[in-house]
Amino acid sequence: MKRILFLLAVVTATAAALYAVVPFAGARPAAQTATTVKVTAKDFKFILSKKSARHGKVTFKVVNKGPSKHDFKIAGKKTKLLGKGKTATLTVTLKKGKKYRYICTVPGHAQLGMKGTFKAT
């Protein structure tokens, strides 16, 4: 009888310990999702839906609403040249606390205003 009571106590203690530990064993920090920034290119300016975003992956969804062809370059990556009504998606990884310059690389367009800075917080 003592053996059965001992085994019952061990099983109960083990079950209680597992119940307390198991919910935390599988817990993981929430995965960081990419921030999306909408970029509208017009002659001769960019309109961004946000001027800053949390550091990490940032996705820029670019649409050209101007009559001239444009591209969008930031953090060493750029979209293809986009005609009127065309879109492109560009994903970059930005470092915390850093400012990134963005431009249209078509000759003369940045000088006419197609440039700016974007901050990673």
Characterize the structure shown:
This protein is α+β, with helices and mostly antiparallel strands and 121 residues long. It has one domain (35-120): Sandwich (Immunoglobulin-like), CATH 2.60.40. The chain is 20% helix and 38% strand. It contains 1 helix and 9 strands, in the order H-E-E-E-E-E-E-E-E-E. It has one helix at residues 2-25; strands at residues 35-42, 45-48, 52-53, 56-64, 73-74, 77-78, 87-94, 99-103, 115-120. Strands 3-9-8-5-6 form a 5-stranded mixed beta sheet, with no helix packed on it. The model has no long low-confidence stretch (mean pLDDT 85).
Break the fold down into its secondary structure elements and pairings.
Elements: H1 2-25, E1 35-42, E2 45-48, E3 52-53, E4 56-64, E5 73-74, E6 77-78, E7 87-94, E8 99-103, E9 115-120
Parallel strand pairs: 1-4, 3-9
Antiparallel strand pairs: 1-2, 4-7, 5-6, 5-8, 8-9
